[in-house]
Specification:
single chain, 377 residues, alpha+beta, two-stranded antiparallel sheet, 8 strands
Length: 377
């Protein structure tokens, strides 16, 4: 027992200082932390040793684990087996505390894999979509009009009935009641879908799901195109603005049931502003030019071209210009609405005047003069 505790302490110490060492030391740390019953048999450790040797032999192992490109080729099968073995090997660490950032990141990547791809392999309710063939309108626009090539591989969408059913690694992302869906890294999407919905509310929730799914699929498309490193270079306003712009999710929707209950889903002020930002960009540049700039921004992993195109230096200036444009647009709409109301009133008066003339057996010529027709006797 003393030997086990000593090894355990060495393992904890190793993990605590891993941030200052090579990631390859993770294997040694895991061996010290494995339960005594397992470590007493060298044969039981061999699969984990082989797994980590295979994992670390790939110079891009982190990017490949964070962005698993899975399709139907033989390489996919090998990678699935590798990740399944990795999940089993790091499982003992899930109950540990005070792990280094590197180890915590590795555990998170494996947990995300288990929650989405692992559940999909176990035939749980997880949908796998191919971005090259899916018929979602927003994705079709990205493929056929923006001409952004579809990223290879599948994306995984897992619906959850409530916040209580969310796995711990993603539960915090749904802390706000306004959150309906979340895209994790490049290929994982979690969506809240009420399990029990009254028949009268089904249309509302069906529309809510379609809108949320489309929004999150745009995130997966753009994130997968940028890659794990590239997606971190783009600001939030770009990520969310693109998803809102193509999915139309900044408008929200509502319905009133026959018994008078109003159900609605409205975006937050922040998301509404992201939508206005892209409306402003389209109004200033035109749709075709905006699409071209979005494609270039994703390819170059920079939003600077968008700033230059509308004559601003940063997002703060863009937000200010978009807000002023929105205010002027609303003012013009109000003026137009008042003009329409006045015009309708004038037309109504004219029709009433004509009606009075008809009642008096009179008529009105094209100039508006009343002509009295006298009956001959």
């Amino acid at each position: 027992m003393a030997r086990f505790l000593g090894s355990y302490c060495i393992g904890r110490l190793c993990l605590g200082y891993l941030r200052f060492a090579s990631i390859s030391l993770l294997l040694l740390c895991l061996l010290f932390l494995r339960p005594q019953a397992v470590r007493s048999h060298q044969d039981d450790l061999s699969p984990c040793i082989d797994t980590f040797e295979t994992l670390l032999a790939d110079e891009m192992w982190f990017e490949h684990l964070a962005d698993p490109v899975l399709s139907t080729n033989p390489e996919t099968g090998d990678r699935l087996r590798l990740y399944n073995q990795l999940s089993e090997c790091v499982a003992p660490l899930k109950s540990e505390e005070a792990l280094s950032d590197e180890v915590s990141t590795l555990l998170s990547l494996v947990e995300y894999y288990d929650i989405f791809i692992g559940a999909w392999l176990d035939e749980e309710l997880v949908y796998a979509y191919d971005l090259a063939t899916i018929e979602d309108p927003a994705i079709l626009t990205l493929r056929e009009e923006v001409h952004l090539p579809p990223p290879p591989g599948l994306v995984f969408v897992r619906p959850f009935a409530s916040g209580e059913t969310l796995p711990e690694p993603i539960a915090d992302t749904f802390a706000s009641e306004t959150v309906r869906g979340v895209t994790i890294l490049t290929r994982y999407v979690a969506i809240l879908v009420p399990e029990e919905v009254q028949a009268l509310e089904w249309e509302f929730w069906a529309e809510d799901y379609r809108e949320t799914l489309s929004h999150e699929l745009v995130h997966t498309y753009v994130n997968s195109s940028l890659g794990i490193v590239g997606m971190s270079k783009m600001p939030d306003w770009f990520h969310e603005g693109v998803a809102i712009y193509f999915s139309g999710s900044s408008k929200g929707h509502s319905m009133v049931t026959p018994d008078g209950i109003r159900i609605e889903h409205r975006p937050t002020t922040e998301y509404y502003n992201y939508g206005v930002d892209f409306e402003f960009l389209e109004a200033q540049l035109g749709q075709e030019a905006l699409y071209s700039l979005l494609l270039s921004s994703i390819e170059n992993q920079s939003e600077e071209e968008l700033y230059r195109a509308v004559g601003v230096a940063n997002y703060e200036e863009l937000r200010q210009e978009a807000n002023e444009w929105r205010s002027k647009s609303q003012f013009r709409r109000y003026v137009l609405l008042i003009g329409v109301i006045i015009l309708v009133g004038v037309i109504g008066c004219c029709l009433l005047y004509t009606s009075d003339a008809a009642d008096e057996r009179s008529s009105v010529d094209l100039g508006g003069r009343r002509i009295i027709k006298k009956n001959k006797t």
